[in-house]
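Typical record was shown:
=====
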Amino acid sequence: MTATEAEKLINDTTAAVKPLDGKALQAAAERMDALLKPPGSLGRLEELGIKLAGIQGTEHPVTDSKLSLIYAGDHGVTAEGVSASPPFVSAVMIKAFCAGKAGINVLAGKAGAVIKVIDVGVATPYEEPEGLIVRRIRKGTGNIRVEAAMSRDEAILAMAAGIETARDAIDETGAKIIGIGEMGIGNTTSAAALTAVFTGRDSATVTGGGTGIGDASQKKKIRVIKDAIELHQPDTADPISVMAKLGGLEIAAMCGAMLAVAADGALVLIDGFISGAAALTAFAMAPGIRERMVLSHLSAEPGHRAMAAKLELKPVLDLGFRLGEGTGAAAVMPLVEAGAALLSEMGTLAEELIILQDPS
């Protein structure tokens, strides 16, 4: 696919993100209030069920097929000493995902979700395991402190790869609930830079310790992000350019995947901080996508609160997660299922009165 073809795919997908089905939303809300319980007494579960009804366009949404998409790519900014882990860990974790040994495998397995692992930009050479989807645009990004993360064409191709792989997975599984996760050493630095730009916050307020760097390294990380933003002067009116200058290949692919999931009528489950950076970019490209998103949890990364505020989404869980991989999204999948089950499996007072009046 050429960059021109990829950009058309992105534009077409963005245009296909439509508002929720108002009639289905109203019908689901009315049924939820009529169920055998005080209205609103099941709190966020009710909200999740109603949102899913609006997304699927039916009063009785289905949840029998779920996906966890994991996009992997490395970051040249690790040369600045902003990560506690060496770059080769991305390749190690890809093998762990494909072998079923990582945290996401456990949580997605409990949720009954199919996992797809996509390499869009891992830098370290490795023996590709069975089941891996390879859509590598380049081997890692540039060091954003001194150069753009990638060219605009590369950002476009990475987004298109996210669209295509998400759609392929949806076609294969019929999934209606889709968690979007990642793997990429150094990606909290790029995610913090994107968050600072898209939320208008100072980089110091949205930058955390990532996988566990010390105070001195965190201060350096903040300086690196400030330097990168000063160097590149990103313009939020051109989200693709912002991604190309400061983002990551896996973040761009996640953004594309979110657009595809929303356009195809499925629920976008945002994972943690990195996934949130992709969501901010997708939101800048297609503001209507917010209605089709659920923020699965509140990450321990400080920038996640700024993301939640910008997206106007309330996290479902707050468990101190900071692993990534789509683990938070997988943990929330059973709650989304429960919300939908309320609409399909609970009875209403009116139905029970009919039974009471006519037991036959």
